[in-house]
Amino acid sequence: MAGANDNNTGQVLTTTCTLFPNLNDQTVMTYKTIGPSKLISDELLSIISVVVKSALYQIFSAFGMTTNFLNLVVFRKMGFRDTVNVSLFALSVSDFCSLASLFWMGICYNPIFADSEISIDSRGIQYITGGWPKFYFTRVSGLITAYVTFERCLCTTMPLKVKSIVTTKRVLVVVICLYLTVAMSIAPIYVSTHIVWKWYPNKNRTQLGLVFSANRETINSITFILNGVLCNGSFFFVVLCTVVLVTNLKKSMQWKKTFTRQKDKKGGKENKASKMVTLVAVVFISCLFPGSVFSLAMYAVPEMNAGESQQNLFFALASLIHITEAFNASINTFVYLQMSSKYMQTFRQLF
Fold first, then answer.
1. For the chain, how are helix, strand and coil distributed in percent, rounded to 5?
2. CA 1 to CA 314: how far, in whole Å?
3. What is the CATH number of the domain that holds 107?
4. pTM (2 d.p.)
5. Chief location of this protein (predicted)?
6. How far apart are CA 167 and CA 86, in angstroms?
7. 351 lies in a domain?
8. What is the pLDDT of residues 160-182, one digit of tens each?
9. What is the DSSP pairing of strand 193-200 with strand 205-212?
């Protein structure tokens, strides 16, 4: 856990339970002598850390930042008269920032950088400069995905009223509120954490590192509850809305086959948009499902947590979950190219 060397194991456990935005296995493992029944050895964990955190983090994040930058350019060119474009533009912003944070985390964990003669404890500093920002933008992306699927549910359940209910300005207000809501939920972390010059005896030098306030454990507990509700709540809401969307799309297709042979261009456009959002939601569910299961497993198996007997397994799985989240944030461009003819046309015009 980043910066954990100033606190006891219980505090480390509380912080890492906030869905591991701030992992630093090298620091946490100095806390506690772990028993012989480790499922993942220290040597294997070191290899996983180098391969995943120092290599895959940067590969996936660099690729994802590129695809999301393309999304931003294309949606800006398409304009924001369509409310879906506003939401998907905001989603691309949060995905881009999440991946940029992961890229920085990869740099901080890279031994070439972390063990060099730099004046910062990069593995500790990433706690609030990389880990929590990534956590923030990933949760914003989850809430925006939940909102987009909800909006498409409205389009399929009350198509005649949705245009008067969902406007560009209202969508913009909703998006801003989502960003602010998640920001307020993690703000306490920055109140209890500070960057100062510290003496590191094991390095025999002074570096910029983290210190924590005395009430850190209480603050982390509150933050965990807030973010646990937002994280799992948005996930299950996306699942619910996706089920409704798929059901309504099937009914719509069946109705058209039964009662009309004429092409409904407007209805066809709405169905295409709904299918695209459904696919985005399915990718989201598939990629974030392991993280949701893992967060529940941390309760069911207390030993699988930082500072406990299976902390190596915890760190290994958590780093892999970062990769699945990065994949989710990177792949939407290909969904848009496949499902949206207007996006494809604009993309070809620009590139």
1. 75, 5, 20
2. 11
3. 1.20.1070.10
4. 0.83
5. membrane
6. 10
7. no
8. 788 888 899 999 999 999 999 99
9. antiparallel
In a domain, 240, yes or no: yes
* 296's tokens: 């529940």
The residue among 84, 95, 92 whose CA lies nearest residue 152 is: 84
Phi first, then psi: what are they for 132, rounded to 5°?
-70, -40
Q: Are 309 and 35 in contact (CB under 8 A)?
A: yes
DSSP assignment letter at 120: B
What are the residues whose beta carbons fall under 8 Å from the beta carbon of 269, sequence distance 6 or more? none
Kindly list the distances between the CA atom of residue 263 and the CA atoms of 222, 267, 272, 338, in Å, as whole numbers in the listed order.
Answer: 54, 9, 14, 21
Average pLDDT, consecutive stretches of 10 residues, N- to C-terminus, the chain (351 residues): 38 41 48 59 86 91 97 95 93 97 94 88 90 93 93 83 88 95 90 89 88 81 78 86 84 64 54 82 90 79 74 87 94 93 94 88
Distance CA 303, CA 101 (A): 29
Q: How many domains does the chain have?
A: 1
Q: How far is CA 264 from the centre of its chain?
A: 38
3-state secondary structure 236-259: HHHHHHHHHHHHHHHHHHHHHHHH
List the domain range (segments joined by +) for residue 134: 4-346
The pair of structure tokens assigned to 42 is 């220290």
Query: Using CA atoms, how far apart are residues 297 and 201, in angstroms rounded to an integer?
Result: 36
Residue 19: left (phi > 0), alpha (psi -120 to 50), or beta? left
Domain assignment of residue 209, yes or no = yes
How far, CA to CA in Å, does 22 sit from each of 149, 237, 333?
30, 26, 28
Q: For residues 71 and 333, give the distance between their C-alpha atoms in angstroms, rounded to a whole number.
A: 6
Task: Say how far apart CA 201 and CA 46 lie, in whole Å.
Answer: 22
**Closest by Cα among 55, 57, 5 to 26:** 5
The token pair that represents 106 in the structure block:
């990869």
- Phi, psi (degrees; rounded to nearest 5) at 304: -90, 75
Give a yes or no: residue 340 inside a domain.
yes
Question: Phi, psi (5° rounding) for residue 200?
Answer: -110, 100
